[in-house]
Write the structure tokens for this entry.
Amino acid sequence: MPIKEKTVELNLTTEMSNLLSVYFRCRASVWAPTPHEEAQLGFDARIDAAGFALLIQYKHARLHRRAGEWRFDLNETVGQDQHKRLCDRANAGTPTRYALPLFDDYQVIRDNVRTGNLWGLPLVYWIDPRQIPFPNNGVGRHTLGVGVNPPHSLAIYSDPLRFKAEKIGVFPILREIAEKLRATEPDRAAVVAAFLHPTETAMGESLRNRPTMTAGMMMVGEPGSWAST
């Protein structure tokens, strides 16, 4: 039977709470934020035991057979910044983990919960969010791939990142090179600088007055002269 994130969350939280209670000889309690609170806080569950808190963000898996990976979609919140929020909490000193189930069928839970093996590898991959080198400081939509077989190789798949950059022509490049030549070859740098100023000015006038290019036309000869191919 296929499962979604809520089934993963309920069962793994129960297993981890039981595990902490046994190891630390105390009772564990769980606080689960509302969807709105989760968007602000970044985690699905907070487990309190022995005077400390463990923050967990669960994800459900989808099998990518061709790549031999389990894939997990991250930052599906409106702000697409859940991963960054998790990293901020981990950097503040609170143990924080992604819990990534390496299964997508309820039968796996039924078979393993009886033996107490559900929480550990190879069934669940627990990872500190700070270990994942997502671009853009973790903001934006990202997908994490975890290899099906041990040692479970990791891969990142991110949405294209749009950015802005100044569009420049060739003359700023030549000027930059000329500036670097000043220290080693000042005479050559002076010649280049003397050439650039009038040529760039003339080119600017030419470009402002040039005819509209159409298919089959190319610029040949001196700046400002156009010919059809």
